[in-house]
Design brief:
By secondary structure, the protein is an alpha/beta fold. The protein has a single domain, classed as Leucine-rich repeat, LRR (right-handed beta-alpha superhelix) (Alpha-Beta Horseshoe), CATH 3.80.10.10. Helices cover about 20% and strands about 10% of the residues. It contains 6 helices and 7 strands. Strands 1-2-3-4-5-6-7 form a 7-stranded mixed sheet, with helices on one face. The chain is elongated, with a radius of gyration of 17 Å. The protein starts with a helix and ends with a helix. It comes from Cephus cinctus (Wheat stem sawfly). It is found in: Cytoplasm. InterPro entries: Leu-rich_rpt, LRR_dom_sf, U2A'_phosphoprotein32A_C.
């Protein structure tokens, strides 16, 4: 990947996005060329983007609620839960997860273990089945989600579908969801997809 292309594929370091940084700076494992979660477990944190790495607790795990895994070559979320448990001091407090610019083709069930997740970046992957986003309904406090740059972005009524499927969202693809968007009619097949893909 050229340096110019890599430069355009970085995550935005924001909080509300920035709010989550109160619990330590991000654990940044981006740009590691990792193909699976086990690869990332062996890597050291980067500090080039924020100037800091999280402190370690007495058990040598990192004190942070933020994990950046973007710009790797991950094709699956398999073992994500193991990775988080291995490197974060309190995995239950994971609030911001960046998996953007990988090669993910599906949303793994592992993601639903992180019930305090508020920010999830999945843009720039290979997600092609829009019905898979219904798995994220279990993340009741999820407020900020990105999915642009995936094949599902080209589905008819993509934005309306996501907003209706995930009513807890406040932002989609870095754009605030306005009340009028939540009042739009459901796209064709919406309720069939919802009922066949999720149990709440």
């Amino acid at each position: 990947m050229s340096s110019d292309k890599a430069a355009t594929k970085t995550s935005h370091y924001r909080r509300n996005e920035r709010e989550e940084a109160d619990f330590g700076p991000p654990m940044d494992l981006s740009f590691k060329k990792a193909t699976n979660m086990d690869d990332l477990a062996k890597e050291t944190a980067r500090s080039i983007r924020t100037g800091k790495i999280p402190l370690r607790s007495s058990n040598k795990r990192f004190l942070t609620s933020t994990l950046w895994l973007n710009n790797n070559s991950l094709s699956s979320m398999s073992n994500l839960d193991n990775l988080v448990n291995q490197i974060l001091d309190d995995s239950s407090r994971l609030a911001w997860l960046d998996l953007s610019f990988n090669n993910l083709t599906e949303i793994g069930d592992e993601i639903t273990a992180f019930r305090q997740l508020k920010i999830l970046y999945l843009h720039g992957n290979q997600l092609a089945n829009i019905g898979q986003i219904t798995k994220l309904r279990k993340l009741r406090v999820l407020r900020n989600l990105t999915l642009h740059g995936n094949p599902i972005e080209h589905e008819n009524s993509y934005r309306v579908f996501v907003i209706m499927a995930l009513p807890q969202l406040k932002k989609l693809d870095f754009s605030t969801i306005i009340p009028e968007e939540k009042l739009k009619a459901a796209p064709p097949g919406f309720f069939k997809v919802i009922s066949s893909n999720i149990t709440t």
